[in-house]
Automatic annotation (TrEMBL):
InterPro entries to which the protein is assigned, alphabetical: OFUT2-like
GO molecular function, one term: peptide-O-fucosyltransferase activity
Source organism: Actinia tenebrosa (Australian red waratah sea anemone)
Entry keywords, A to Z: Carbohydrate metabolism, Fucose metabolism, Transferase
Protein name: Uncharacterized protein LOC116308380
Biological process, per Gene Ontology: fucose metabolic process
Gene3D superfamilies tied to this protein: 3.40.50.11350
Gene expressing this chain: LOC116308380
Length: 526
């Protein structure tokens, strides 16, 4: 986009300056063709997590409900509601077209689910992750990034298991005692249509995923290399010492050893987390600690660190970025664009259809609200969260009146199925819990919203927090008007799919309103 704007400027010069300027313009055109011809993208730690839009005119489709003048005067200086231009910047990133076939130009949902994937050979190589870091939105993004890295390493990625918005390499959990049967992680297909997932990966230059049993069978007679990344954050020492029961002196020795060439032997990893027994049928070979700040090149990681060993286990995977790994794989489509194109499981899609039918919102417009209060409480405190909710309610009332809509759907992390990290230092404080309860009660009283809850027995898979979250996600981006409080990867996922859906038809009547989505760097006692 930057190049095209400069090119327009060059045209203006050409009109005024004659032949020399025309020659200059021709050179600019040649540079433009050379730069924009390539369909691939480099993934880096600066990669935005936003929906990719081909045409700049799409930005005009973002409609914004602003505060009324009175509220605007009270709240703007506190950063409650960003300006329209800020919304556009956060929602859109303009990139060159991804070149596709005419049969399937941009509609990623239409990838053929019957497409054949790579067959397993006796020489096939694998990347297995034991502990997938973070909750559903970021964990999914991290997983897709891993598939991009694995493709360059000519490896398959082992499909994780899921439960309550978390991912794990094995059903029994990655640390501590093996989980009981009722608490086991569930198949990946509980959340996603795995066939579509793999075909998207294959179509856009990513490694595909294989089942755990395939990995175990293929690696049963191989030496498996285990890798622990020592990420550059304050928790690195604590996690290394805690997981592997290391003394201070042992930790210092590991840190010194790993800094010499970026990796070193760490023969305590398997014993510390009982990895070989957790996975089963695993013959452990080398155990390595790796500094991701020093090992940044994928080929170096594959050739020198893993030494092309067929079977490799990553203990703790955080993806690409600050305090994560620094690999930069090339793909045809950025990971976040692929994440926002994923298709969810039949279980979830059927539950969405059922809820719409019983709630009388099927084929009817409704306003959807998504509240991510965890970060608001961390950034601002409970009093400002209350003000944010007040602003949100004002906006919803305006939308109801303007668009003649009476149905409202609410999704919030304050519910019983919300974030498992929503734990406060003062959670036992009676006054705090009373305040939070009062805010919720008053909000529900004013909005009178619909809320999703599983309709079956308590032990049903529908009570899985991840299933609930994805069901609510589908109900959110199927609305006509979306209102959000807070931010985060999962919320951005909702916003980007919502925009992708409605940007196909500029005549659709839709809006996005984001309230209190900026972080204020200050320590707040809640």
């Amino acid at each position: 986009m930057f190049i095209r704007r400069n090119l327009v400027y060059a045209v203006k010069i050409a009109l005024d300056s004659g032949f020399k300027a025309c020659l200059f313009l021709s050179l600019c055109l040649l540079v433009l063709v050379l730069i924009e011809d390539g369909p691939s993208h480099v993934i880096s730690n600066q990669e935005p997590r936003h929906f990719d839009v081909v045409k700049a005119s799409r930005i005009e489709l973002v409609q914004r409900e602003l505060l009324n003048e009175n509220a605007k005067g009270r709240y703007d200086e506190q950063g409650f509601v960003p300006k329209t231009s800020d919304i556009a910047d956060r929602v859109f990133e303009i990139i060159p077209d991804v070149k596709n076939t005419s049969e399937n130009e941009t509609e990623l949902y239409q990838v053929d689910a019957t497409q054949n994937t790579h067959a397993i050979k006796s020489t096939s190589k694998f990347l297995f992750v034991l502990h997938h870091y973070e909750q559903l939105g970021k964990a999914t993004h991290n997983l897709v990034q891993l598939c991009a890295i694995a493709k360059q390493m000519k490896r398959f990625v082992v499909e994780p298991f899921v439960r309550d918005s978390r991912m794990c390499g094995v059903p029994g959990g990655w640390s501590g005692q093996q989980r009981k049967r009722s608490r086991l992680f569930r198949p990946f297909s509980t959340y996603f249509d795995v066939d579509v997932f793999n075909n998207l990966l294959s179509s856009f230059g990513y490694a595909t995923m294989k089942k755990l049993e395939t990995f175990k069978t293929s690696c049963s007679n191989e030496k498996t290399t285990i890798v622990h990344f020592i990420y550059a954050d304050v928790d690195a020492e604590q996690s290394l010492r805690k997981w592997y029961n290391l003394s201070v002196d042992q930790y210092i020795k590991v840190k010194n050893d790993v800094q010499r060439r970026g990796y070193c032997d760490c023969p305590f990893i398997d014993k510390g987390l009982n990895i070989s027994n957790r996975i089963g049928d695993l013959n452990v070979g080398r155990e390595l600690c790796v500094d991701p700040e020093k090992i940044r090149n994928i080929d170096e990681f594959e050739d020198q660190v893993l030494q092309n060993d067929r079977c490799a286990v990553i203990v703790h995977w955080r993806g690409i970025g600050k305090n994560r790994t620094n690999f930069r794989p090339r793909v045809k489509l950025k990971p976040w664009s692929l994440v926002t194109s994923l298709k969810h499981s039949n279980l979830i899609r059927n539950e969405v259809a059922r809820f719409k039918e019983v709630s009388f919102i099927d084929n009817h417009p409704y306003i959807a609200i998504h509240i991510r209060s965890e970060r608001q409480l961390q950034w601002y405190g409970i009093e400002k969260l209350n003000k944010c909710i007040a602003v949100m309610i004002q906006q919803v009332e305006k939308l109801k009146e303007m668009h003649k809509i009476d149905k409202i759907f609410l999704s919030t992390d304050l519910s019983a199925y919300g974030s498992d990290t929503l734990i406060f230092p003062s959670a036992q404080d009676t006054e705090f819990k009373q305040k939070l309860g009062t805010i919720q009660t008053e909000m529900l009283k004013q909005l009178q919203p619909l809320s999703y809850a599983p309709h079956t027995k308590r032990n049903s898979v529908l009570f899985d927090k991840g299933v609930v979250a994805i069901t609510e996600m589908n109900l959110l981006f199927d609305s006509s008007h979306l209102v959000t409080i807070g931010s985060g990867t999962f919320q951005q996922w909702i916003i980007d799919v919502f925009i992708k859906k409605y940007s196909k038809d500029k005549h659709q009547n839709w809006t996005i309103t984001r309230v209190c989505n900026r972080e204020e760097k200050r320590n707040v006692k809640i």
